[in-house]
Design a protein that fits this description.
402 residues; alpha+beta; Rossmann fold; SH3 type barrels; 3 domains; 5-stranded parallel sheet; 22% strand; globular
Length: 402
Protein backbone atom coordinates (compact mmCIF):
# COMPACT_ATOMS: atom_id res chain seq x y z
CA UNK A 1 0.00 0.00 0.00
CA UNK A 2 3.01 2.29 -0.40
CA UNK A 3 2.35 5.25 -2.71
CA UNK A 4 4.69 6.67 -5.34
CA UNK A 5 5.74 9.60 -3.13
CA UNK A 6 6.37 7.33 -0.12
CA UNK A 7 8.37 4.88 -2.23
CA UNK A 8 10.49 7.73 -3.61
CA UNK A 9 11.32 8.93 -0.08
CA UNK A 10 12.04 5.37 1.06
CA UNK A 11 14.43 4.70 -1.82
CA UNK A 12 16.23 8.01 -1.24
CA UNK A 13 16.71 7.11 2.43
CA UNK A 14 17.97 3.63 1.56
CA UNK A 15 20.39 5.09 -0.98
CA UNK A 16 21.84 7.49 1.59
CA UNK A 17 22.30 4.67 4.11
CA UNK A 18 23.51 2.10 1.54
CA UNK A 19 20.68 -0.12 2.80
CA UNK A 20 19.11 -3.17 1.24
CA UNK A 21 15.32 -3.20 0.87
CA UNK A 22 13.17 -6.32 0.70
CA UNK A 23 9.67 -5.64 -0.62
CA UNK A 24 6.89 -7.96 0.51
CA UNK A 25 3.30 -7.60 -0.60
CA UNK A 26 0.49 -8.65 -2.90
CA UNK A 27 -0.35 -6.36 -5.81
CA UNK A 28 -3.67 -8.18 -6.27
CA UNK A 29 -4.86 -6.64 -3.00
CA UNK A 30 -5.77 -3.06 -2.07
CA UNK A 31 -3.65 -0.26 -3.50
CA UNK A 32 -2.25 2.77 -1.72
CA UNK A 33 -4.56 5.59 -0.70
CA UNK A 34 -2.15 8.17 -2.14
CA UNK A 35 -1.40 8.30 -5.86
CA UNK A 36 0.90 5.72 -7.44
CA UNK A 37 0.78 1.93 -6.99
CA UNK A 38 4.52 1.79 -6.31
CA UNK A 39 4.95 -1.91 -5.61
CA UNK A 40 3.01 -2.95 -8.72
CA UNK A 41 5.01 -0.49 -10.84
CA UNK A 42 8.28 -1.95 -9.53
CA UNK A 43 7.03 -5.48 -10.12
CA UNK A 44 5.86 -4.83 -13.68
CA UNK A 45 8.05 -2.00 -14.96
CA UNK A 46 11.48 -2.62 -13.42
CA UNK A 47 13.94 -5.45 -13.93
CA UNK A 48 13.71 -6.55 -10.32
CA UNK A 49 13.10 -10.28 -9.99
CA UNK A 50 10.28 -11.45 -7.74
CA UNK A 51 9.70 -14.64 -5.81
CA UNK A 52 6.07 -15.75 -5.58
CA UNK A 53 4.41 -17.76 -2.83
CA UNK A 54 1.82 -19.98 -4.49
CA UNK A 55 0.58 -22.25 -1.70
CA UNK A 56 -2.39 -20.95 0.30
CA UNK A 57 -1.76 -21.22 4.04
CA UNK A 58 -4.68 -19.37 5.68
CA UNK A 59 -7.74 -21.33 4.51
CA UNK A 60 -7.80 -24.81 6.06
CA UNK A 61 -11.11 -25.92 4.47
CA UNK A 62 -10.63 -27.34 0.97
CA UNK A 63 -13.78 -25.85 -0.66
CA UNK A 64 -13.11 -22.43 0.86
CA UNK A 65 -9.43 -22.52 -0.18
CA UNK A 66 -10.29 -23.49 -3.78
CA UNK A 67 -12.85 -20.68 -4.02
CA UNK A 68 -10.30 -18.11 -2.82
CA UNK A 69 -7.69 -19.36 -5.32
CA UNK A 70 -10.25 -19.04 -8.13
CA UNK A 71 -11.30 -15.62 -6.86
CA UNK A 72 -7.71 -14.46 -7.31
CA UNK A 73 -7.51 -15.77 -10.88
CA UNK A 74 -11.03 -14.97 -12.04
CA UNK A 75 -13.28 -12.91 -9.71
CA UNK A 76 -16.57 -13.93 -11.34
CA UNK A 77 -15.68 -17.63 -11.35
CA UNK A 78 -14.49 -17.35 -7.75
CA UNK A 79 -17.77 -15.70 -6.73
CA UNK A 80 -19.63 -18.60 -8.41
CA UNK A 81 -17.59 -21.08 -6.37
CA UNK A 82 -18.44 -19.26 -3.15
CA UNK A 83 -22.10 -19.38 -4.17
CA UNK A 84 -21.92 -23.12 -4.92
CA UNK A 85 -20.47 -23.95 -1.48
CA UNK A 86 -23.36 -22.07 0.14
CA UNK A 87 -21.38 -19.03 1.27
CA UNK A 88 -23.54 -16.38 -0.48
CA UNK A 89 -26.90 -15.46 1.07
CA UNK A 90 -29.42 -13.02 -0.39
CA UNK A 91 -31.74 -11.21 2.05
CA UNK A 92 -33.84 -8.05 1.95
CA UNK A 93 -31.99 -4.78 2.58
CA UNK A 94 -33.98 -4.01 5.75
CA UNK A 95 -33.15 -7.48 7.14
CA UNK A 96 -29.46 -7.50 6.23
CA UNK A 97 -28.02 -6.04 9.45
CA UNK A 98 -30.06 -8.50 11.51
CA UNK A 99 -28.93 -11.40 9.29
CA UNK A 100 -25.30 -10.38 9.86
CA UNK A 101 -25.91 -10.16 13.63
CA UNK A 102 -27.43 -13.66 13.60
CA UNK A 103 -24.46 -15.06 11.64
CA UNK A 104 -22.14 -13.35 14.13
CA UNK A 105 -24.01 -14.90 17.08
CA UNK A 106 -23.87 -18.37 15.49
CA UNK A 107 -20.09 -18.05 15.24
CA UNK A 108 -19.86 -17.83 19.04
CA UNK A 109 -16.58 -19.14 20.39
CA UNK A 110 -14.76 -18.36 17.16
CA UNK A 111 -12.70 -15.35 16.20
CA UNK A 112 -15.06 -13.60 13.77
CA UNK A 113 -14.83 -10.36 11.77
CA UNK A 114 -17.49 -8.54 9.75
CA UNK A 115 -16.36 -6.61 6.66
CA UNK A 116 -18.74 -4.00 5.22
CA UNK A 117 -18.74 -2.04 1.99
CA UNK A 118 -19.57 1.35 3.56
CA UNK A 119 -19.31 3.16 6.91
CA UNK A 120 -23.11 3.48 7.06
CA UNK A 121 -23.32 -0.30 6.76
CA UNK A 122 -20.78 -0.63 9.59
CA UNK A 123 -22.96 1.54 11.85
CA UNK A 124 -26.12 -0.49 11.13
CA UNK A 125 -24.37 -3.83 11.56
CA UNK A 126 -22.60 -2.77 14.76
CA UNK A 127 -25.88 -1.62 16.30
CA UNK A 128 -27.54 -4.95 15.42
CA UNK A 129 -24.66 -7.04 16.77
CA UNK A 130 -24.47 -5.12 20.07
CA UNK A 131 -28.27 -5.36 20.52
CA UNK A 132 -28.04 -9.14 20.02
CA UNK A 133 -25.13 -9.43 22.47
CA UNK A 134 -26.99 -7.38 25.09
CA UNK A 135 -30.03 -9.63 24.71
CA UNK A 136 -27.81 -12.69 25.22
CA UNK A 137 -26.13 -11.08 28.27
CA UNK A 138 -22.74 -11.08 26.53
CA UNK A 139 -22.16 -7.43 27.47
CA UNK A 140 -21.95 -5.82 30.89
CA UNK A 141 -23.39 -2.50 31.99
CA UNK A 142 -22.79 0.21 29.37
CA UNK A 143 -21.28 3.66 29.95
CA UNK A 144 -21.00 6.66 27.65
CA UNK A 145 -17.30 7.25 27.00
CA UNK A 146 -15.77 10.20 25.07
CA UNK A 147 -13.74 9.42 21.96
CA UNK A 148 -12.11 11.37 19.14
CA UNK A 149 -13.16 10.75 15.54
CA UNK A 150 -10.66 11.74 12.85
CA UNK A 151 -11.86 14.21 10.23
CA UNK A 152 -9.25 12.80 7.81
CA UNK A 153 -8.19 16.21 6.58
CA UNK A 154 -5.54 16.56 3.92
CA UNK A 155 -2.45 18.73 4.43
CA UNK A 156 -4.14 21.50 2.42
CA UNK A 157 -7.26 21.38 4.59
CA UNK A 158 -5.20 21.56 7.79
CA UNK A 159 -3.33 24.59 6.44
CA UNK A 160 -6.55 26.53 5.79
CA UNK A 161 -7.62 28.33 8.99
CA UNK A 162 -11.18 28.70 7.69
CA UNK A 163 -11.82 24.97 8.23
CA UNK A 164 -11.37 25.09 12.01
CA UNK A 165 -14.21 25.31 14.52
CA UNK A 166 -14.14 25.75 18.33
CA UNK A 167 -14.19 22.41 20.13
CA UNK A 168 -12.22 20.46 17.53
CA UNK A 169 -9.33 18.43 18.93
CA UNK A 170 -5.74 18.60 17.65
CA UNK A 171 -3.69 15.52 18.57
CA UNK A 172 0.05 15.81 17.96
CA UNK A 173 1.89 12.82 16.53
CA UNK A 174 5.21 14.64 17.00
CA UNK A 175 6.36 17.27 19.46
CA UNK A 176 6.56 20.97 18.64
CA UNK A 177 7.61 23.90 20.80
CA UNK A 178 5.59 23.85 24.02
CA UNK A 179 3.58 20.73 23.04
CA UNK A 180 4.59 17.11 23.65
CA UNK A 181 4.02 14.12 21.41
CA UNK A 182 0.52 12.56 21.84
CA UNK A 183 -0.79 15.71 23.58
CA UNK A 184 -4.27 16.91 22.56
CA UNK A 185 -5.37 20.56 22.44
CA UNK A 186 -8.88 21.92 21.94
CA UNK A 187 -9.48 24.63 19.34
CA UNK A 188 -10.67 27.85 21.06
CA UNK A 189 -10.83 30.32 18.18
CA UNK A 190 -9.26 31.28 14.87
CA UNK A 191 -7.28 34.49 14.51
CA UNK A 192 -5.62 36.15 11.54
CA UNK A 193 -2.20 34.70 12.34
CA UNK A 194 -3.26 31.17 13.29
CA UNK A 195 -5.39 28.85 15.41
CA UNK A 196 -5.63 29.40 19.16
CA UNK A 197 -5.85 26.06 21.01
CA UNK A 198 -5.94 25.24 24.71
CA UNK A 199 -4.20 22.35 26.49
CA UNK A 200 -5.62 20.35 29.43
CA UNK A 201 -3.50 22.59 31.68
CA UNK A 202 -5.45 25.63 30.52
CA UNK A 203 -2.55 27.07 28.53
CA UNK A 204 -3.37 28.70 25.19
CA UNK A 205 -1.07 28.48 22.17
CA UNK A 206 -1.26 29.91 18.66
CA UNK A 207 -0.59 27.35 15.96
CA UNK A 208 0.38 28.21 12.40
CA UNK A 209 0.15 26.37 9.08
CA UNK A 210 3.76 25.26 9.53
CA UNK A 211 2.81 23.24 12.63
CA UNK A 212 -0.19 21.62 10.92
CA UNK A 213 2.05 18.80 9.69
CA UNK A 214 2.52 17.71 13.30
CA UNK A 215 -1.11 17.06 14.29
CA UNK A 216 -4.33 15.42 13.16
CA UNK A 217 -7.76 17.02 13.54
CA UNK A 218 -10.49 15.19 15.48
CA UNK A 219 -14.05 15.74 16.62
CA UNK A 220 -15.06 14.77 20.17
CA UNK A 221 -18.06 12.41 20.37
CA UNK A 222 -19.35 9.82 22.83
CA UNK A 223 -19.65 6.08 22.39
CA UNK A 224 -21.39 3.40 24.45
CA UNK A 225 -18.91 0.85 25.81
CA UNK A 226 -19.47 -2.16 28.08
CA UNK A 227 -17.40 -5.02 29.46
CA UNK A 228 -17.18 -7.62 26.69
CA UNK A 229 -17.24 -5.07 23.87
CA UNK A 230 -14.77 -5.26 21.01
CA UNK A 231 -12.95 -2.02 20.17
CA UNK A 232 -10.94 -0.98 17.12
CA UNK A 233 -7.96 1.21 18.02
CA UNK A 234 -7.53 3.91 15.37
CA UNK A 235 -4.14 5.43 16.28
CA UNK A 236 -0.61 4.30 17.08
CA UNK A 237 0.86 4.82 20.54
CA UNK A 238 4.34 3.92 21.74
CA UNK A 239 4.57 4.93 25.40
CA UNK A 240 6.58 3.25 28.15
CA UNK A 241 3.40 1.91 29.79
CA UNK A 242 1.12 1.50 26.80
CA UNK A 243 1.58 0.40 23.21
CA UNK A 244 -1.15 0.36 20.57
CA UNK A 245 -1.26 -0.26 16.84
CA UNK A 246 -3.63 1.49 14.47
CA UNK A 247 -6.19 -1.12 13.31
CA UNK A 248 -5.77 -3.39 16.33
CA UNK A 249 -8.96 -5.03 17.64
CA UNK A 250 -9.16 -5.50 21.43
CA UNK A 251 -11.73 -6.72 23.96
CA UNK A 252 -12.82 -4.66 26.97
CA UNK A 253 -12.79 -6.54 30.28
CA UNK A 254 -13.91 -3.70 32.58
CA UNK A 255 -15.04 -0.07 32.44
CA UNK A 256 -14.91 1.96 35.67
CA UNK A 257 -17.17 4.90 36.59
CA UNK A 258 -14.57 7.37 35.27
CA UNK A 259 -14.63 5.74 31.84
CA UNK A 260 -11.20 4.10 32.18
CA UNK A 261 -11.12 0.86 30.19
CA UNK A 262 -9.22 -2.29 31.10
CA UNK A 263 -8.52 -4.71 28.25
CA UNK A 264 -8.57 -8.48 28.53
CA UNK A 265 -4.87 -8.64 27.60
CA UNK A 266 -3.97 -6.69 30.75
CA UNK A 267 -3.50 -3.25 29.19
CA UNK A 268 -5.42 -0.18 30.29
CA UNK A 269 -6.24 2.59 27.83
CA UNK A 270 -4.58 5.83 29.04
CA UNK A 271 -6.93 8.70 29.92
CA UNK A 272 -5.62 10.72 26.95
CA UNK A 273 -6.04 7.91 24.42
CA UNK A 274 -9.39 8.61 22.76
CA UNK A 275 -8.85 7.16 19.29
CA UNK A 276 -11.10 4.09 19.19
CA UNK A 277 -14.48 2.84 17.98
CA UNK A 278 -16.46 -0.40 18.10
CA UNK A 279 -14.55 -3.27 16.51
CA UNK A 280 -17.25 -5.65 15.28
CA UNK A 281 -17.31 -4.50 11.66
CA UNK A 282 -14.61 -2.85 9.55
CA UNK A 283 -14.01 -1.77 5.96
CA UNK A 284 -12.02 -3.95 3.58
CA UNK A 285 -9.06 -1.56 3.97
CA UNK A 286 -9.07 -2.13 7.74
CA UNK A 287 -9.35 -5.90 7.27
CA UNK A 288 -6.21 -6.22 5.12
CA UNK A 289 -3.54 -8.17 7.00
CA UNK A 290 -5.93 -9.72 9.52
CA UNK A 291 -6.61 -13.44 10.01
CA UNK A 292 -9.76 -14.71 11.76
CA UNK A 293 -11.61 -18.02 12.04
CA UNK A 294 -14.73 -16.74 10.29
CA UNK A 295 -15.38 -13.69 8.11
CA UNK A 296 -18.78 -12.23 7.24
CA UNK A 297 -19.11 -9.83 4.29
CA UNK A 298 -22.08 -7.44 4.11
CA UNK A 299 -22.87 -5.28 1.09
CA UNK A 300 -24.26 -5.02 -2.42
CA UNK A 301 -21.15 -3.71 -4.14
CA UNK A 302 -17.46 -4.32 -3.58
CA UNK A 303 -14.83 -4.11 -6.29
CA UNK A 304 -12.38 -6.88 -7.16
CA UNK A 305 -9.45 -6.10 -4.86
CA UNK A 306 -11.66 -5.14 -1.92
CA UNK A 307 -13.76 -8.29 -2.17
CA UNK A 308 -10.72 -10.55 -2.56
CA UNK A 309 -9.13 -9.08 0.59
CA UNK A 310 -12.37 -9.34 2.57
CA UNK A 311 -13.22 -12.89 1.48
CA UNK A 312 -9.72 -14.24 2.16
CA UNK A 313 -9.48 -13.13 5.82
CA UNK A 314 -11.04 -16.34 7.22
CA UNK A 315 -9.38 -19.62 8.13
CA UNK A 316 -12.46 -21.84 8.41
CA UNK A 317 -15.42 -20.12 6.78
CA UNK A 318 -16.79 -17.13 4.88
CA UNK A 319 -20.36 -15.86 4.58
CA UNK A 320 -21.44 -13.21 2.09
CA UNK A 321 -24.74 -11.52 2.98
CA UNK A 322 -26.17 -9.29 0.25
CA UNK A 323 -29.48 -7.84 -0.89
CA UNK A 324 -28.59 -8.09 -4.59
CA UNK A 325 -26.48 -11.08 -5.57
CA UNK A 326 -26.24 -10.12 -9.25
CA UNK A 327 -25.19 -6.55 -8.49
CA UNK A 328 -22.49 -7.80 -6.13
CA UNK A 329 -21.30 -10.35 -8.71
CA UNK A 330 -20.94 -7.60 -11.33
CA UNK A 331 -19.07 -5.24 -8.99
CA UNK A 332 -16.63 -7.99 -7.95
CA UNK A 333 -15.53 -8.26 -11.59
CA UNK A 334 -14.47 -4.58 -11.70
CA UNK A 335 -10.98 -3.55 -10.64
CA UNK A 336 -9.81 -0.48 -8.71
CA UNK A 337 -6.30 -0.76 -10.21
CA UNK A 338 -4.86 2.49 -11.59
CA UNK A 339 -2.56 2.67 -14.59
CA UNK A 340 0.91 4.14 -14.31
CA UNK A 341 2.24 6.79 -16.68
CA UNK A 342 4.40 4.16 -18.43
CA UNK A 343 1.39 1.91 -19.02
CA UNK A 344 -0.64 4.77 -20.46
CA UNK A 345 2.30 5.83 -22.66
CA UNK A 346 2.62 2.29 -24.08
CA UNK A 347 -1.06 2.34 -25.00
CA UNK A 348 -0.44 5.51 -27.01
CA UNK A 349 2.90 4.26 -28.38
CA UNK A 350 3.03 0.45 -28.27
CA UNK A 351 6.68 0.44 -29.32
CA UNK A 352 7.90 1.88 -26.01
CA UNK A 353 10.21 -0.58 -24.27
CA UNK A 354 9.15 -1.94 -20.90
CA UNK A 355 11.73 -2.08 -18.11
CA UNK A 356 14.21 0.13 -19.94
CA UNK A 357 17.31 1.34 -18.14
CA UNK A 358 17.55 4.95 -17.04
CA UNK A 359 20.12 7.23 -15.43
CA UNK A 360 23.57 5.75 -14.73
CA UNK A 361 22.51 2.30 -15.99
CA UNK A 362 21.46 3.84 -19.31
CA UNK A 363 24.77 5.71 -19.53
CA UNK A 364 26.77 2.49 -19.05
CA UNK A 365 24.68 0.69 -21.65
CA UNK A 366 25.15 3.49 -24.18
CA UNK A 367 28.88 3.65 -23.49
CA UNK A 368 29.25 -0.10 -24.02
CA UNK A 369 27.24 0.10 -27.24
CA UNK A 370 29.40 2.99 -28.47
CA UNK A 371 32.60 1.05 -27.71
CA UNK A 372 31.38 -1.98 -29.68
CA UNK A 373 30.33 0.24 -32.59
CA UNK A 374 33.66 2.12 -32.54
CA UNK A 375 35.68 -1.11 -32.93
CA UNK A 376 33.77 -2.04 -36.08
CA UNK A 377 34.71 1.22 -37.88
CA UNK A 378 38.15 1.71 -39.46
CA UNK A 379 40.17 4.13 -37.37
CA UNK A 380 41.00 7.52 -38.90
CA UNK A 381 43.53 10.04 -37.77
CA UNK A 382 41.99 13.33 -36.72
CA UNK A 383 43.76 16.56 -35.82
CA UNK A 384 41.94 19.54 -34.33
CA UNK A 385 42.17 22.81 -36.15
CA UNK A 386 44.54 25.22 -34.39
CA UNK A 387 42.55 28.18 -35.66
CA UNK A 388 39.47 27.20 -33.65
CA UNK A 389 39.14 27.96 -29.97
CA UNK A 390 39.18 24.88 -27.78
CA UNK A 391 35.75 24.27 -26.25
CA UNK A 392 35.80 24.21 -22.47
CA UNK A 393 34.41 21.02 -20.95
CA UNK A 394 31.64 21.16 -18.38
CA UNK A 395 32.60 19.87 -14.96
CA UNK A 396 29.26 18.18 -14.38
CA UNK A 397 26.86 16.47 -16.75
CA UNK A 398 23.33 16.69 -15.37
CA UNK A 399 21.91 13.89 -17.45
CA UNK A 400 24.43 11.46 -15.91
CA UNK A 401 23.68 12.81 -12.44
CA UNK A 402 20.04 11.88 -12.95
Amino acid sequence: MVSGRQMHELLKLADRQSARIIFSGDTKQIQSVEAGDALRVLENESRLKSTSLTQVQRQITADYRNAIQELRRDPEAGFEKLDRIGAVHEVGWSDRAQAVAQAYAESKGRDVLVVCATHDEIDRVTEAIRASRKQNSDLGESLQVPRDVSLNWTAAQKSDYRNYRPGQRLTFHRAVKGITKNETLAVVRVEGNGIVACSDRGEEQTLTAKQSKSFEVYERRTIEVAAGDKLLLTANRRDANFRATNGEIVTVSRVDNDGRMQLDDGRQLPADFKQFTHGYAVTAHRSQGKSVDSVIISGDGMQKELFYVAASRGRRSVQVITSDKELLRESVARSTARQSASELARKARPGLHQGSYRGAAAARELAAHAARHDRSIPQQTWQPSVTKQVRRERTHEHSFGR
